[in-house]
Amino acid sequence: MKFTKLFLTAAITAGLSSAVFAADYDLKFGMNAGTSSNEYKAAEMFAKEVKEKSGGKIEVSLYPSSQLGDDRAMLKQLKDGSLDFTFAESARFQLFYPEAAVFALPYVISDYDVAQKALHDTAFGKDLIQKMNKELGVTLLSQAYNGTRQTTSNRAINSIADMKGLKLRVPNAATNLAYAKYVGAAPTPMAFSEVYLALQTNSVDGQENPLATVQAQKFYEVQKFLAMTNHILNDQLYLVSNETYQDLPEDLQKVVKDAAENAAKYHTKLFIDGEKELVAFFEKQGVTVTHPDLTPFKEAMKPFYAEFVKQTGSKGETALKEIEAINK
């Protein structure tokens, strides 16, 4: 049970009494991100605001760096009620609903405004939120921007032609593999922990990640070219276990919801401001930043969109059409 009964410890010393009160609700927030990440900073803000606005009734402890398992494991823990809060990208729900991969199709989500509308304004997005709640046992509290993936390399990328044959490290995810494949690179799945050394030794020619990750992992030390390919936009959802949320009285539900929305705004600002500053930072480190024409990159992805629709049927087709309509 999340609820811990209020207790009072009284000690009388020299005629004085003192009382120590515990929080009514001791809750856990698990995440993959480490303590130096923007996600962790935003989660800290969330925990602080929840404690303050609840008058100390809710205490949220943070468990970063996959201490409680990966995101798939933590989503299951939310459903089971053994974990209270976690993060997950919208596209990650393709684990349960293949059509949710639409959120990560390269060049489909053009900016964060589109990402928000895709999740909250389309029939597809609204249905997904409802299924998350009814079938997976999680409630969506808020959505934040979590960076846009760019491409670093050991040679300049001035156009899509420069991608040809580029041995590009990507995570073992269909959409990232497709990005590399369809723009002409050689997709090379590899564990994240191995990437720095692989770049340093030229075992791979490049990698793709949000700029904050490039800085945090110091990939700029071993990659002297950065292409602003803007191929996949990442969001981050603040999720709460239904069991936890329903256990809270309405006033505390509102505290949690408001805090998550405020934390998401801060989360988004950290990434937007950070990306602006990071381009200049990388240039100061001797990295050459290029801005290739992205129209050919988008065109190259069309066969993959067709493949996505073939695999996901009418649900995927509808999702893609609804999101593409937002971009127009």
The structure class reads alpha/beta
Give the CATH architecture.
3-Layer(aba) Sandwich
- The CATH topology is D-Maltodextrin-Binding Protein, domain 2
Shape: globular
CATH domain class name: Alpha Beta
| Fourth-tier CATH superfamily name | Bacterial extracellular solute-binding protein, family 7
Taking the alpha carbons of the first and last residues, their distance comes to 48 Å
Number of domains: 1
Main attributes?
328 residues; two-stranded antiparallel ribbon; alpha/beta
Please tell me about this protein's structure.
The protein is of the alpha/beta class and 328 residues long. It has a single domain, classed as D-Maltodextrin-Binding Protein, domain 2 (3-Layer(aba) Sandwich), CATH 3.40.190. 44% of the residues lie in helices and 23% in strands. The protein has 11 helices and 11 strands. The strands form 2 sheets. Strands 3, 4, 5, 6, 7, 8, 9, 10 and 11 form a 9-stranded mixed β-sheet that branches. It has a two-stranded antiparallel sheet with strand order 1-2. A hairpin with a 2-residue loop joins strand 1 and strand 2. The longest helix has 35 residues. It is globular, with a radius of gyration of 22 Å. The protein starts with 8 loop residues before the first strand and ends with a helix.
